[in-house]
Amino acid sequence: MIKDQTQLEQFQLAFDNLLQTSVYQVPQKNKQQALLPIFNLLHQHHQTHCLAYANIMQQANGTVNALADLPYLAVRLFKQLSLSSVPQQDVFKVLQSSGTTSQRPASIFLDKATSGRQSKVLVKVLQETLGKQRLPMLIIDSPAVLKDKSLFSARGAGIQGLSFFGRDHTYALDDNMQLNWSAIDAFHQKYQDQPVLIFGFTFMVWLYFIQGLKQQAKTVRFNHGVLLHSGGWKKLEGQRVDNHQFKHLLAQTTGVERCYNFYGMAEQVGSVFMECEQGYLHAPVFADVIIRDPFTLEVAPIGQSGLVQVLSVLPTSYPGHSILTEDLGTLIGTDDCQCGRQGHYFTIQGRLPKTEVRGCSDTHSA
Ligand SMILES: [Zn+2]
């Protein structure tokens, strides 16, 4: 027990150091040096405190010398097992990621420490893109998403998490997912000449905002607006829209030129991978990404599409620090993106074919 206290204390010290570090300016080699001891500590911590994790990791004792050698859990295990590394009385919130009708949702067990780390890191990462000022915020969703308990899954939590970055929160859609013109007009009148934050899940923004405007042959100009969107492109596959078209039509209908997608798992809230001006997703200093060949699970070289493994230093209350997702992505490079950010940068292509559909915004059926 005493040994473990020291482990968590060591972890907390290392984490506090990371919080003082620049989010995107650490070259990959130094970043790996800083993160390795933290992930080794997390692996040991979860082995000690989560029996299911310890059983799965029986063959993976000891420490590793490279991030790519860290053991990982398949993301679907969070649906099949209750993975918690804290006593039940310390669980302060259980986050449910969306499930399909045939699948139970994943349960993510949060204690106060993990939840606090998630908020702190989300703030640090998003401030790099948005700045420190809280902007008037237009939310591309219906206010029902927060009221309806059955909807309050990842979508509600995502909106709540992002709300912190805005003020005068205004919902652009009504309960029937139609554009709420009285709300939009009032917001537009007040804020059209100043920076505003627009946030929504990718599929909601495309289907109900951009397409909604287009169908009504209307535009609403926010020339100083910035759009953040997340939640994946899966629902949009039938619509034949890619990031480029999305941005193009967004600019046409709203005048918003700054548009950033971000990638993150409900299993790793807080550690998000934000798109840069060049259109690539970047790993912040708190997280990393590894692409694996879907057949051999070996690390894939730069430029080769594969399964995305995500690492996050945040979770101590559940063993979600190293997860193999069912998403396909490609590592584009290391330390040399034109935007100047250091570390790994990548793109997401979608989900592995023939796996079950799941994603934050996918909880809303059109
Ligand atoms: Zn970049």
TrEMBL record:
Q: Please name the source species.
A: Aliiglaciecola litoralis
Q: Which Pfam families match?
A: LuxE
KW Transmembrane (keyword) present: yes
Which InterPro entries does this entry report, sorted A to Z? ANL_N_sf, LuxE
For this UniProt record, give its keywords in alphabetical order, as a comma-separated list.
Answer: Membrane, Transmembrane, Transmembrane helix
Listed transmembrane segments: 196-213
Coiled-coil stretches: none
Q: Which residues form the Acyl-protein synthetase LuxE domain?
A: 43-363
This protein's source sits in the domain of life called Bacteria
Question: Can you say what this protein is called?
Answer: Acyl-protein synthetase
